[in-house]
Amino acid sequence: MKVPAAVLWERNSPWKVEEIELGEPGPGEVLVQLKASGICHSDDHGVTGDIPMPLPQVGGHEGAGVVLEVGEGVSRVRPGDHVVLSAIPACGNCRWCISGRANLCDLGRRAVAPAADEQVPARRLGGQTLSALCQLGTFASHAVVSELQAVRIDDDVPLDVAALIGCGVTTGVLGAIRVADVLPGDVVVVQGVGGIGINAVQGARIAGASTIVAVDPVERKRNWALEFGATHVAADMEEATALVADLTRGVMADKAILCVGVAHGEHLGPLVGIISKGGRVVVTSITPVTETAMTFSLFDFAMSNKELRGHVYGAANPVADFPRIIEMYRRGQLRLDELITTRYPLSEVNAGFADMHGGRNLRGLLEL
Ligand SMILES: NC(=O)c1ccc[n+]([C@@H]2O[C@H](COP(=O)([O-])OP(=O)(O)OC[C@H]3O[C@@H](n4cnc5c(N)ncnc54)[C@H](O)[C@@H]3O)[C@@H](O)[C@H]2O)c1
Ligand SMILES: [Zn+2]
Ligand SMILES: [Zn+2]
């Protein structure tokens, strides 16, 4: 079928909305009518090449919608089901899935680089195959996706907020709770208050942090952070370090979570410096794939028993965790409606990215 979709043809160029050809759902695949897609900074990493996605590419990996058709052998969902699309598949069979670490599912590598002989949903335009980050392509009216990435949710959950669960909410909230392992009474620093960082603030609040210091150069972001549960804010890490030293009488923070739009090695030093002995730094942000250097004192790091932890997708098990996230939303513990700053039609996708870069959105949302 032909559907409108935002396509990236060249690095550092605008998205173009065009009619693409979506294949029929093959074995294990489902056709989803998308209702909404969040605009996540990871899509922009595909634009800059930080994530070296092959081009041309259909954008979007944070979506929700309604299943229209299922391919052969599909058992997880049926037509009519409301689904959140999971950025990472959960095959249910690999050693990671069966040990409750589906965020590390072996099929996750398909998100960026499927093997040549591997079945992924077919998208074409003008005779060319289109790639899609996470094999989702949610900047479109419809998507064909693996059933391993379609997680059924209750029909009463608004599909706009549900879309955000597909990446930003899950990564931010569960990243704080599970990966940073925020404990009641902890002092937590969140650097970068975008769609991910604001949810790390919420996760830290839910986990019972006593003190949450949100760091962002944009004043509007700092004000939002205070509304979502931060207890203090700072414009940069220098200011945050002085603030945390003062608040903790020099003990420093238990956890620090890096959520800036683009991470670089130089971010590590101040983060390692702001945590206490035995503290933990969590790297959520994506770094350009070619960058490998970082500099901080390994002597202090070792002698202070500090930890540096990589983080992908909130250590989430989507089938188990999406309903838990929804329940926190229903009970008012997690604010999701307020995350959507601006809504755009698909034709305005570039305005959505411009607002993200301009610091004007917590999350921009495409209504599809
Ligand atoms: N690890 C994962 O599983 C995962 C999942 C989703 C997104 N990500 C990554 O998380 C990062 C954040 O994504 P997002 O969608 O929230 O981005 P965003 O653009 O919405 O927000 C980034 C925020 O960082 C702030 N910022 C920039 N430089 C800063 C600095 N030096 N100090 C403090 N704040 C700074 C910006 O003002 C902005 O508010 C991206 O790198 C994204 O690719 C990782
Ligand atoms: Zn994302
Ligand atoms: Zn698996």
TrEMBL record:
Record protein name field: S-(Hydroxymethyl)glutathione dehydrogenase/alcohol dehydrogenase
EC class of the enzyme, as a word: oxidoreductase
Coiled coil: none
NCBIfam families linked: Rxyl_3153 (TIGR03989)
CDD domains assigned: Zn_ADH_class_III
Domain Enoyl reductase (ER): 13-362
SUPFAM superfamilies associated with the record: GroES-like, NAD(P)-binding Rossmann-fold domains
Entry annotated with the keyword NAD: yes
Record key words, sorted: Metal-binding, NAD, Oxidoreductase, Zinc
Lineage: Bacteria, Bacillati, Actinomycetota, Actinomycetes, Pseudonocardiales
Molecular functions per Gene Ontology: alcohol dehydrogenase (NAD+) activity; S-(hydroxymethyl)glutathione dehydrogenase [NAD(P)+] activity
Family: Belongs to the zinc-containing alcohol dehydrogenase family.
EC number: 1.1.1.1, 1.1.1.284
Keyword Heme: no
InterPro entries reported for this sequence: ADH-like_C, ADH-like_N, ADH_Zn_actinomycetes, ADH_Zn_CS, ER, GroES-like_sf, NAD(P)-bd_dom_sf
